[in-house]
Specification:
With 596 residues, the chain is of the alpha+beta class. It is built from 27 helices and 14 strands. Strands 1-2-3-4-5 form a five-stranded antiparallel sheet, covered by helices on one side. A five-stranded mixed sheet has the order 11-10-12-13-14, sandwiched between helices.
Length: 596
């Protein structure tokens, strides 16, 4: 859609660019320009400028620039027309009906049609759940989750009927074309008449303007993935949206803070407890794009993740992403209990509210996390933990805060403050040098660590269906290699968020070098992985188990020899018994493998 140029000029002449931009960026006047840190990329030294007499902005860092309309398009993720409409309201300018030309671009037409389609389908799902009551199982399940009908209706929660082809036939009868439905993201790529959402509780995903742009469906059956999420379309980019942002935006703007939780039901639980400033990522880990969106509304955030290792890792990543945007983070201390959804089921609204009162700042959280299970009397361990904390300290914008945190570290680990400051200075200088170095030779490092575990995790990334078994037979705590642990945690994050596709798993890999290496290997071994059978996977599990038993036997044999030399007959006999048990286990394992 186009808007007459005279209308645009009237809007821009009536509104101050500095006034509008200052709602998103802290601006300071220097000379004839206003300066601030760019909202479109991470920086600590201001390179974003506004020239008031020209009504133009420009960032010398990321090279983005333009007028106020272009700024709103970028910062609010809006179309040109949407940006003009928003500014018209701010300027008090009414756009007459004849101010719009009758020309629509094909993309704008399609977007508008998708918005209408998704809203109709969302309302239809909601009707099936609450008005028609098509699924007693869905209603019973929601009742068990202890979420009120008021909250379910607020989020327009619905139910997709069990027959998979009804939606396609219904929409065809409403004159939607097959080609349009094929691009809608509602139907299977393999069988176009089959909707991807059936026999599922439906969570509509809404953008900041309240338009339904996607769905997340929770299964009521035992088979298939627990959650299915809409693919990306021209109106939906999962990394640029957050579940619950629209529903909570008023409270978020008022409080200038929010809670980041893991899942859709967690957001509903928070709202049900009267805590409306809560959002969740959409099936993936929290992203920089999502932090940029939140930066417009908040100064601080509280993270409420599961207390298991994957949850701890996700919290750590989110802390650093928020820190890069200048957003302070705290972590809700749930005392080892689970997520908001489970707390409200077990302890009700008051139990959840009580839990939310306990939190620790992000530095204390990292301090606690890095020391967990580590012997800090060992100087190597102590040094490693301190260097891990340097990353957080270096990210602080205030020199006073840096000094305070270094004092805290010196006290915690009983080290000399001046020596610590020297090491911190070396760390900062080293990080600066690293940023100008080419990528590290990760492939060589990984090849040195090549193992059965490596192959098993690589297969699981390429063919995620195998990870369910990997979790049973290969727990994370048994993996020592740092890069293999990063692969495992990426798989675990995707498994927990029900986003078990290869691209989603790779997106959860922190290291660009590792991600590139894995992408290359998966591509090279595509045929081999495609032909991988359950027997091949069982063989890998067998090899892992057998290797562990043999290593354990070797250790016990050494202990047995030592006890013999020391004359400790009792301890020697105990070791011999352990060795006999291991031999029996190896023998049984061999028989099972032969039978398979």
């Amino acid at each position: 859609m186009k808007i007459d140029q005279s209308i645009i000029e009237a809007i821009l002449n009536k509104i101050s660019m500095v006034d509008v931009v200052s709602q998103y960026v802290n601006l300071n006047l220097k000379g004839n320009k206003y300066w601030g840190c760019c909202p479109f990329h991470n920086e600590k030294t201001p390179s974003f400028s506004i020239t008031p007499e020209k009504n133009l902005f420009f960032c010398f860092g990321c090279q983005k620039g333009g007028n106020l309309i272009h700024f709103i398009q970028e910062v609010e993720h809006m179309s040109f027309v949407e940006s003009v409409e928003l500014l018209a309201k701010k300027a008090g300018v009414e756009i007459p009906k004849d101010g719009f030309s009758k020309t629509f671009s094909e993309e704008e037409k399609k977007k508008d049609q998708f918005y209408q389609l998704y809203q109709k389908v969302a309302d239809l799902f909601h009707y099936f759940l609450f008005e028609k009551k098509s699924s007693p199982e869905a209603l019973k399940y929601l009742e068990g989750r202890k979420i009120s009908d008021e909250t379910l209706k607020k989020f327009n929660i619905g139910y997709a009927p069990s027959k998979g082809e009804w939606l396609y036939d219904f929409l065809l009868s409403k004159n939607y074309s097959k080609e349009f439905l094929r691009e809608s993201g509602l139907f299977s790529a393999k069988k176009e008449s089959l909707t991807i959402f059936y026999n599922r509780i439906i969570f509509p995903v809404r953008d900041i303007k309240g338009r339904t742009i996607a769905f997340s469906g929770r299964t009521l059956a035992d088979n298939g993935p627990k959650y299915i999420n809409s693919p990306e379309t021209i109106i939906y980019k999962k990394k640029e949206n957050l579940f619950g942002l629209y529903e909570g935006i008023k409270e978020i703007r008022n409080k200038k803070n929010l809670f980041i939780v893991e899942g859709n039901f967690d957001v509903l639980a928070m709202h049900d407890a009267g805590v409306e400033n809560a959002v969740a990522p959409l099936g993936t880990a929290f992203t920089e794009n999502q932090a940029l969106i939140l930066k417009k509304y908040i100064k601080s955030a509280k993270l409420f993740f599961d207390p298991d290792e994957a949850g701890l890792k996700a919290a750590e990543k989110t802390i650093y992403i928020l820190q890069q945007q200048g957003i302070d983070a705290e972590i809700v201390d749930n005392f080892g209990s689970s997520d908001p959804s489970e707390i409200i089921e077990k302890n009700g609204k008051e139990g959840l509210k009580k839990t939310l009162n306990y939190s620790i700042n992000s530095f204390e959280y990292l301090l606690k996390k890095y020391q967990k299970g580590i012997d800090i009397t060992d100087y190597t361990n102590k040094e490693q933990i301190i260097r891990s904390l340097f990353k957080f300290i270096a990210g602080q914008s205030s020199e006073i805060r840096k000094d305070g945190l270094l004092t805290r570290v010196a006290d915690e680990f009983n080290v000399n403050k001046k020596a610590l400051e020297l090491e911190f200075k070396k760390y900062v200088e080293g990080e600066k040098r690293l940023s100008f170095k080419p990528n590290r030779p990760v492939e060589k490092k990984i090849m040195l660590n090549s193992s059965i575990e490596m192959n098993l995790l690589l297969v699981s990334i390429a063919n995620p269906k195998y990870f369910k078994e990997v979790r049973r037979y290969l727990p994370l705590e048994e993996i020592e290699d740092e890069m293999l642990r990063e692969m495992y945690i990426a798989l675990e994050e995707s498994y927990r968020s029900e986003e078990m596709q290869t691209f989603s798993i790779l997106n959860n890999i922190e290291s660009d070098e590792l991600r590139d290496f894995l992408t290359k290997k998966i591509s090279e071994k595509a045929d081999e992985i495609a032909n991988m059978s359950d027997n091949n996977i069982s063989s890998l599990f067998y090899t892992i188990k057998m290797n562990k038993l043999r290593l354990l036997k070797e250790k016990f044999l050494k202990d047995c020899s030592r006890y013999e030399l020391e004359g400790d007959v009792s301890a020697q006999e105990m070791m011999l018994n352990e060795i006999r048990c291991i031999d029996e286990e190896i023998n049984n394992l061999g028989k099972i493998n032969d039978r398979d």
